[in-house]
Specification:
18 helices, mainly alpha, about 75% helix, MFS_trans_sf, about 375 residues, about 0% strand, Growth Hormone, Chain: A, transmembrane helix
């Protein structure tokens, strides 16, 4: 049963970056530049925020399973829309829909996974969720790039494959048990940050800011060097390769895993940005894999496990708080960097982002490492199954 939920989560997140290799094509069709592309990409957060801020009690009212099914249906609707009317405007709408769906799924996924695992500890449930979502977020872009190798098209076979597999996942989730009884709890349940959890949220904000920059703006930089066909693979590397590092992350205490990720993140970004700006594909892919180890290996797994450990009985609200910061990082820095790219050029925009990222990583690492913080509670919790 946990595998069915993991499959569904993978298909939901797969749809999120399915169109990533076509971003520059959509921008050309609509006649816009990097800033508009970043805005369309970041409309995702407009779908995420209402769910995280205003519908925290929805899972208690309707159950866990309906939210996963709704997220699958929204992913299918988003993919269908971009097939019917490709363009930057449609991309903005589809990413908004996918933001709603992903927020519905991820805020309840860890708690639901724990229930399907028979009340297992939250760390094991977090491992399942992070692995399946990390794979999905990157796999969509890679699949589209594979289909685009056969020739340019606005309707690659990966879109139809997502629709087919999501329909299968919908049937599988429909047959899952929903063991938590529905309750007449308050609908408005704001995200919360248990003592010691905020630095983990800030760490994932920085990690996903790096990821968002790669997905939204790197394709345009790569195109300048005739490397457009590799944009989807760079997205896959910067997200899904993090799964390879999760077994190592599980052996570390949450705080140590997160600190290691914060150390790797600015160094890997520097390699990736240098490679993109100079047309060095090997450096781009190596930097993307290293960044993925930080973003979706050490920081994502370590942070989510720590937050759920610190949350006690407030796991849903604490997960919402964690993902709220993650999605803010996934969008706002990308918009700002896109504006800088249009005004100052891509090189200067990448340099300024790198400086800000490095300074912020040092500040968050200091907050995590401070012995007076209650994050030391999480340091005693390992990520080992």
């Amino acid at each position: 049963m946990p595998a069915r939920l993991a499959f569904a989560l993978c298909l939901i997140t797969l749809a999120v970056n399915l169109q990533a290799p076509l971003y520059t094509t959509y921008a050309d069709l609509s006649g816009y530049g990097a800033a508009a592309t970043a805005l369309a990409f970041s409309s995702y957060v407009l779908g995420v925020l209402p769910v995280l801020l205003a519908f925290g009690g929805l899972a208690d009212r309707v159950g866990r399973r309906p939210l996963i099914m709704a997220a699958l249906l929204l992913s299918m609707l988003a993919t269908t829309l971009v097939l019917l009317a490709p363009g930057l405007e449609t991309l903005a709408l589809t990413r908004l829909l996918m933001g709603v769906g992903t927020a519905l799924a991820t805020t309840t996924a860890t708690a639901y996974m724990g229930e399907l695992l028979g009340g297992a500890d939250s760390t094991r449930a977090a491992n399942w969720v992070t692995a399946s979502t990390s794979l999905g977020f990157g796999l969509g872009a890679a699949l589209t790039s594979l289909f685009l190798l056969r020739g340019p098209t606005l309707s690659p076979g990966s879109f139809y494959l997502q629709l087919l597999l999501a329909a299968v996942a919908l049937l599988l989730v429909w047959r899952l048990p929903d063991r938590r009884p529905t309750q007449r709890s308050a609908m408005l349940r704001l995200p919360c940050y248990p003592p010691g959890s905020l630095p983990y949220g800030l760490a994932i904000l920085l990690a996903w800011a790096c990821t968002g920059l790669v997905i939204a703006l790197l394709p345009g930089v790569l195109r300048q060097h005739g490397l457009s066909e590799w944009s989807g693979f760079s997205t896959f590397c910067v997200i899904s390769c993090g799964v390879l590092f999760q077994p190592l992350a599980r052996r570390l205490a949450s705080v140590r895993a997160t600190l290691l990720g914060l150390t790797i993140l600015p160094l890997s970004y520097a390699l990736l940005a240098w490679g993109a700006e100079n047309g060095r594909l090997a450096a781009v892919l190596a930097g993307a894999v290293a960044a993925s180890s930080a973003c979706y290996g050490f920081i994502y797994l370590g942070g989510l496990a720590a937050v759920n450990t610190l949350a006690g009985n407030e796991k849903t609200r604490a997960s919402a708080g964690f993902f709220l910061l993650a999605y803010l990082g996934f969008s706002l820095p990308v918009i700002f960097t896109g504006l800088l790219s249009d005004r100052l050029g891509s090189r200067m925009a990448l340099v300024l982002f790198g400086i800000a990222l490095s300074v912020a990583c040092v500040a968050v690492a200091k907050a995590l490492y401070s012995p007076g913080k209650r994050t030391c509670r999480a340091s005693r919790q390992t990520l080992k199954n």
